[in-house]
Amino acid sequence: MEGPTSHIYFSQRLRLHYVDWGNDGAPPMLLVHGGRDHCRNWDWVAERLRDDYHIIAPDLRGHGDSQWIIGGSYNQIDYVYDIAQLLNQKKMTPVTIIGHSLGGSISLLYTGLFPDTVTKLVSIEGMGPPPEMMKERIEQPMEDRLQLWVKELRKLSGRIPRRYPSLEEAYERMQKENPHLTEDQARHLTIHGSNQNEDGSYSWKFDNYVRNFPPIGLDFEDQYGLYKRISCPTLLIRGTESWATDPEKDGRAKTFQDVQVASIEDAGHWVHHDQLDIFITLVKDFLAA
Known about the structure:
This protein is of the alpha/beta class. It has 10 helices and 10 strands. Helix 1 links the parallel strand 3 and strand 4.
C-alpha cells in the first residue's frame, strides 16, 4: 500500500508525531490508537477509508515516534488536550473520530468536551474496565490508591525496556500477544512499533511509564457526565473474545444520547485487526447512515 506522510506538531511543549493519509478536500477523520500501540496500527483501516476521508492518525505522547514526558504520570486529560491541539492546529473540525481502547476513551472524553466539533464517533472497547471493577476502584480509599501508585511507579522506574536480539523475536512476541494477527499484520506492527538499539537489538517504542495510571483525575461519574454531552451518533464496538463487557447489557450505553452497540464474533480486544472486513463494513454502514 502507498503509505502516509509523517509530520510533527507540538502540545504542552512536547514534540508529537502524526501521519497524514492525504486527500485534503475530503471530510476529516481522526484515528486514535490504544495504549502501548502506535499510529501505524491503523494502516489497514486507513487504506480502506482514505478515498472518502482525509485521515490523520497521531502517536499519543509516550507512544510511537512521539516524545516521552518528563515524569511518570500519563493522564487521560493530557491526551485529550493533545488531540484537541492537533485538530485545532490542522483546522480539521468538524471531524469523524475512530478510537481504540485508550484511544477510544480519549475520543469519548474529547467528544463530550467539544460535542459540536465531532460529526460521528466510533469507540472500540473505549469505556474501560467493567462496572464491577470501576465500583471496586471508586470504593478504594484515596490513601490506598496513592500508595499503590507510588509502589507501581517505583517498580516501573527499575524496569528496563526489553531487548529482543532480532526483529524476528520481537515479531514472535507480537504474534503471541494476539494470535488473531496474520503473519503480515504482526510483522507490519512490529516493524513500525520498534526501534533498533545501538547494540543491534530491538525494543518497543512506548515508554514503560504509560503502563501506570494516575490515582487522581476525572472520576467515573465525571466521565459519564461528559458522555451525556455527546450529541453525535456514536458506535460502541467490542470483540466477544475480549475482557470488555457489553455496554448495552451492563447499562453504560444508556449514558449516550444517540448510540449503537455492536459485538463482533471471533474477535478479541483488537477488533479492527481480528475481523477487519466485518469491522470496515460495520463502520462504513454507520458512517453512511
